[in-house]
Amino acid sequence: MEHVQVLIAGGGIGGLSAAIWCQRLGLSCLLVEKADRLGGQLLHIHNELWDFPPRVYSQGSELLDELLHHPAIHRLDPRLEEAVVAIDPHERIITTTKTSYRADYLIIATGVSPNHIPALDGCPCVLPTSFSTTAQAARVTGQEIAVVGGGDRALESAVNLSKYASHVHLLVRKNQLRARSQWKSRAEALPNLSIWWETEIAAYEARSGKIALMLQAGRPDSPSEITVDWILPRIGVHGNSDAFPMLGTFGDSYLQTDGFQRAGSPWIYALGDVCNGAPYASLSLAVGQAMKAVKHISLQIQQP
Ligand SMILES: Cc1cc2nc3c(=O)[nH]c(=O)nc-3n(C[C@H](O)[C@H](O)[C@H](O)COP(=O)(O)OP(=O)(O)OC[C@H]3O[C@@H](n4cnc5c(N)ncnc54)[C@H](O)[C@@H]3O)c2cc1C
């Protein structure tokens, strides 16, 4: 069984920053990434990034290109298409989809995945969560669309799409929005945007090129069925922590960590979105946590 000093699970900006810090502090590391390429969510950001100082990036891929040119990332030999699926916290064994490793330390930087709507399983007209409502919005020109969710991203998407779509239905499960009030007032002012409160999708049916959505509505004025061309789910994300059921979680499967990013075990650390929760998900925080986790590991190793 291969022995590694630090095994990093996840090749988004958090995992890559951890790999840079491992090299900086003289630790050997191995990074395993579930996808066939590095980058994580950076691959799906089509908006401008202006809160990751000092540069403004036109989109995530521009920042990723620079990151991949970092000398430490050049030297990294990541194992792609290999996911961590289980760990033995006592033996320090990490099982992946391809093999097992024995590691002195594990850094979990597995990020988040979008929540999905089971009632839409198999529906051909569901837009991917990576769909950009700015760069790709022209695709829904003149069409009717349902956006599902009540947070900032759902409201922002609905408002953006209303510039192109003939009509936008915003389906909100609760009787109020989680989104900031400015989004609510912008949405309510739009003539081609309807908000259906206390409404959930119960089933769908394909009908002559369109999709009929059967709705479970809690209010008498809400429709029991609408017909749309596209559905865009924006119902939030959950931490990718399935492989670590023995570790403590909060909220939507986010890993609990202490002030040094330890996830309830002296050899297991977590950083980035998998442990931050949606309100704090950010590039800057993931990068800073990578420094803290790896520095703490290096100090543990130096101790007699
Ligand atoms: C549309 C959009 C816009 C955003 N805009 C901004 C912004 O303007 N400013 C900002 O600061 N932040 C923004 N963010 C948030 C920011 O992108 C994230 O906070 C950051 O990318 C999180 O990095 P991460 O490394 O923690 O996770 P991720 O980028 O999610 O990377 C996790 C990686 O782990 C891999 N993985 C998952 N499970 C496993 C496993 N079991 N084994 C191995 N690998 C695994 C995944 O494939 C993925 O590559 C945005 C996000 C999105 C989606």
From TrEMBL:
Any Pfam family hit: Pyr_redox_2
Stretches that traverse the bilayer: none
Record flagged with keyword Transmembrane helix: no
Alphabetical keyword list: Flavoprotein, Oxidoreductase
InterPro entries: FAD/NAD-bd_sf, FAD/NAD-binding_dom, Ferredoxin-NADP_redctase_2
Domain FAD/NAD(P)-binding span(s) in chain numbering: 5-284
Residues forming coiled coils: none
Cofactor(s) needed by this chain: FAD
Assembly: Homodimer.
Name of the protein described by the UniProt record: NAD(P)/FAD-dependent oxidoreductase
